[in-house]
Amino acid sequence: MGAVKNYLSVAFFAFWGGLARYALTEAFSFYGTALANLLGCFLLAFLTYFFLRRTNARAWLNTGLSTGFVGAFTTFSSFNLDAFKMLAAGSSLPALLYFTGTIVAGYLCAWAGKKAADFAATKMLERG
Predict the structure, then answer these.
(1) Which residue ranges run through the membrane (predicted)?
(2) Is 71 marked as a binding-site residue?
């Protein structure tokens, strides 16, 4: 039964993650991809470390949010395609800045997500 719950959770949250990424891309075009990936770095680190600190966390919820929502929300392929399009258009420096800047910013967002999760989990544990 647990596996079925996980699959349903991933499907449910992937639907919402895909819609959220689509909305960002529609609203911000090229920048929507970068925004989705950076938010995804923060969210995945936050969810991972928050659920690790919670002893009563439900596995199906963590799987659905991380694999489903964040997995559908972020897009490594579009990130690379955007960089490739810049290179193909002869924009080497912007492509390099986009590629390396996104990776560095993604790392920083993941670090911030872990710190935020530690803070939130500690506050929740203090409350009981």
Answers:
(1) 7-24, 30-52, 59-81, 93-113
(2) yes
Residue 67 assigned ligand-binding role: no
Q: What is the pTM of this model?
A: 0.88
What is the total count of domains within the chain?
Answer: 1
Query: Hey, how many other C-beta atoms are within 10 angstroms of the C-beta on 30?
Result: 13
Domain range holding 122?
2-127
| Tokens 């719950």 -> residue | 5
Phi first, then psi: give them for residue 127, nearest 5 degrees.
-75, -20
What does the pLDDT read at residue 30?
A: 80
User: How far is the C-alpha of 36 from the C-alpha of 72, rounded, in Å?
Assistant: 10
Q: Report the 10 Å Cβ neighbour count for 125.
A: 11
